[in-house]
Amino acid sequence: ISSRLEWLGLTHRTYYRRMLRRIAGSTATADEFAALQTLTDQLEPVKDYTREETATVEPTNFSPLNRVVDAVRLESDPGRHFGELVDKFVSTSCMDGDSADRLRAQFTVWRDNDAKLQSLAQRSFLVKEVAVRSQDLSALGTIGLAALDAISKRQPAPDSWKTQQLATLEQMKKGKVQLLLIPVPAVQKLVEAASPGGTCGAGNP
Q1: How far apart are CA 42 and CA 105, in angstroms?
Q2: Which pTM does this prediction carry?
Q3: What are the tens digits of pLDDT across the range 152-170?
Q4: How many whole angstroms separate alpha carbon 99 and alpha carbon 87?
């Protein structure tokens, strides 16, 4: 649908990158901008009236729409595609090597992304506002890599690890700075698959 709307002249996709450029500022390096987009590609605004209810300052007609929550897409295509990749991987009892490689590459990018964004966050208060979500994305990458390691060894992760990671993921599901981290449910599915009794644990076909 987005592609058809863009063909008809809507600028919702190109405007996204322009907004990110303004948020990053003129001093942002190419790597810093890429790190910002890596984060925002996985974010969506909170839904319905939650945004107004969670605003730190009551919004008015004069409130500037210059924050990350104003720039991110209403629906994250990259987040949705990531969920589809996890579903495909788990549906093969985690035997699809290509999907495993793609997931590992994505998790590694997420794990390392926060470190690349920190310098920009120190210079831009608009980027600094979403530091908590950047840290969450990095942690999500670490959790995903640990799940893949357990799966690749065909050794189910300990129950204690599963309990700890699922608790962490539940916290990540919550809206923070009015933003949702879209890949969290997919990583939760991967953690469960890597745990005892999961789809991809030892002893499963």
Answers
A1: 15
A2: 0.87
A3: 998 888 999 999 999 999 9
A4: 10
